[in-house]
Write a structure and sequence with these properties.
The complex is a heterodimer of chains A (about 325) and B (about 160). Chain A has about 325 residues and is of the alpha/beta class. Helices cover about 25% and strands about 25% of the residues of chain A. In chain A, β10, α5 and β11 form a beta-alpha-beta unit. The N and C termini of chain A lie close together (about 5 Å). Chain B is α/β, with parallel strands linked by helices and about 160 residues long. Helix content of chain B is about 20%, strand content about 35%. Chain B has a 4-stranded mixed sheet. Chain B has a 4-stranded antiparallel sheet with strand order 6-5-8-7, with no helix packed on it. The longest helix of chain B has 14 residues. The radius of gyration of chain B is 16 Å and the shape is globular. The mean pLDDT of chain B is about 95. Classes of the chains: A alpha/beta (about 325), B alpha/beta (about 160). At the A-B interface, α6 and α7 of A face α2 of B.
Chain lengths: ~325, ~160
């Protein structure tokens, strides 16, 4: 199973403007200088080899994650990252499958610019748990918010409502929705295929985190290879943003440590977070794993604990 | 959870009430912790000496608890182990800049390897607003001078935001 992150930001897209590029070049130049690089060619080679850090930047698309297994491919959410995915695959695909976590704008706003919806003959299936999802997706195409109306779209677009906790089969992949903690309701998905498992767990504040509080949602975090976790805020920020619907990396690490989740992917980065802050954040998260691993006997056979990575636009991981 | 099971004991000390916490402040502590936000008097001492561990979930719940507790109450921290002091230094809203009456600081002896925790008191050993120079501590095992594990400016960081 593979996961590709087409959009790793939350809330709002982020762009790098002229001043941002200059600041980035300064930082990169300082790194290159420290490594004794003497030419542009050397700098480019070092950057390609990952010697100047990976990622160089995290990107700015809002959420869209692709889960694929062999020829089977599914997208979770329709943030601006979906536009990129559509452009890449539009010449080779006719059928598209999308699972929606919830109806907030940053998770829908890529659809009007997803070129496959304009192409006759294309078939797009949108799975959702929210009962009113079809209405709130169609309303974007009312001719006012976007010039093309729903009935003018070329593709056939079908909505399929899912029941919470009931799996749906997509080829060899089983997909099951479960509940997250987010204003208005949000739903994560667990993907299972060939004995491997991944959970896409955004948007969620994870206010319910003890085994008792999670209740029916607890098994979705158990025997799990990879968890994509909403880590929008630093812990200090989270304490001031109770009930905003997003969580923090170290909350995810607490969960991963307790439930022996092998890999944790931090996502839904705060649009106000600079690349430098995101670099610092992942370093701190890894330090937190090291500092707290000693409390968890379930990791004694895997002394490094869970692997923690920070998602960026374009990252692909294999489970 | 054994010795890590979270417990709270409440005792009167004159006009103050001492809440003595023990065990792990983690995601399982919430149910035990929250009722105390409503059931204490107007002057409260939070005694954290016997807290064995704290994780991020526990910090989040503690912060919500303390935010409610400190409304219309005088609240002070007391007997904070170094793990709690580290948390204060990282997360301001773990203690909301409330007074910290005493802390335990960990020391190690280079001569014999003995480790010990010294209780440092506000007024005698430190004061809010300044980093103190660490007081000399003798090893309880061999009598040689012991060294603090963390530098003064890191350990006492919480005093600067108090």
């Amino acid at each position: 199973m593979q996961l590709t992150f087409w959009g790793a930001r939350g809330s709002s897209p982020v762009v790098m403007n002229h001043q941002g590029v200059l600041a980035f070049l300064e930082t990169l130049g300082a790194k290159a200088k420290a490594k004794g690089l003497a030419s542009i060619d050397q700098l480019v080679a070092a950057a390609k080899a990952g010697d100047l850090g990976v990622p160089l930047v995290y990107g700015g698309h809002t959420p869209c994650t692709e889960v694929s297994e062999g020829a089977q491919s599914m997208f979770i959410d329709m943030g601006t990252g979906l536009r990129e995915a559509g452009t890449k695959y539009m010449s080779t695909r006719k059928e598209w499958t999308i699972f929606l976590t919830h109806m907030h704008w940053d998770h829908l706003q890529g659809l009007p610019f997803f070129i496959p919806i304009f192409i006759p003959g294309n078939k797009i299936t949108i799975y959702h748990v929210h009962k009113n999802a079809p209405e709130f997706v169609r309303i974007m195409f009312n001719g006012v918010n976007f010039p093309v109306k729903w009935d003018q779209l070329g593709a056939t677009i079908e909505f399929k409502e899912l029941k919470l906790y009931e799996p749906v089969q997509q080829g060899v992949v089983s997909v099951t929705p479960f509940a997250l903690d987010h204003p208005g309701g949000s739903f994560g998905y667990r993907f299972e295929a060939g004995g491997r498992s991944a959970v896409v767990g955004f948007d969620g504040e994870y206010t319910r985190i003890s085994k008792e509080e999670l209740g029916k949602d607890l098994p979705f975090y158990q025997n799990l290879d990879l968890l994509v976790f909403d880590a929008q805020y630093e812990l200090e920020e989270l304490l001031n943003k109770h009930d905003w619907g997003h969580s923090s990396s170290t909350i995810g690490i607490d969960l991963a440590l307790r439930e022996t989740i092998k890999k944790l992917v931090l996502i839904h980065h705060d649009p106000w977070a600079s690349d430098e802050r995101l670099h610092a954040s992942i370093n701190n998260a890894r330090k937190y794993v090291k500092a707290n691993l000693k409390w968890y006997e379930n990791w004694k056979d895997q002394p490094n604990g869970p692997e923690v990575v920070s998602a960026y636009d374009g990252l692909t991981l294999t489970v | 959870m054994g010795k890590n099971a979270f417990k709270v004991q409440m005792a009167a000390e004159g006009e103050w009430q001492r809440l003595a916490f023990s065990g792990a402040i983690n995601e399982d502590a919430k149910g035990t912790l929250m009722p105390f936000a409503d059931s204490t008097g107007t002057k409260v001492i939070l005694d954290l000496r016997d807290v064995t561990l704290i994780n991020s979930c526990g910090i989040r719940d503690w912060s919500i608890f303390l935010r409610a507790l400190k409304m219309n109450r005088e609240v002070v921290f007391d007997r904070c182990p170094d793990e709690i002091v580290r948390t204060m230094n990282m997360v301001t809203n773990f203690y909301y800049r409330l007074p910290v009456k005493s802390v335990y600081r960990a020391y190690g002896c280079e001569n014999c390897g003995h480790e010990q925790a010294e209780l440092l008191k506000e007024g005698a050993d430190y004061a809010a607003g300044a980093i103190p120079s660490g007081k000399p501590v003798k090893c309880a095992s061999c009598g040689e001078m012991a060294e603090a594990f963390e530098p003064d400016d890191e350990f006492f960081q919480f005093l600067l935001s108090a």
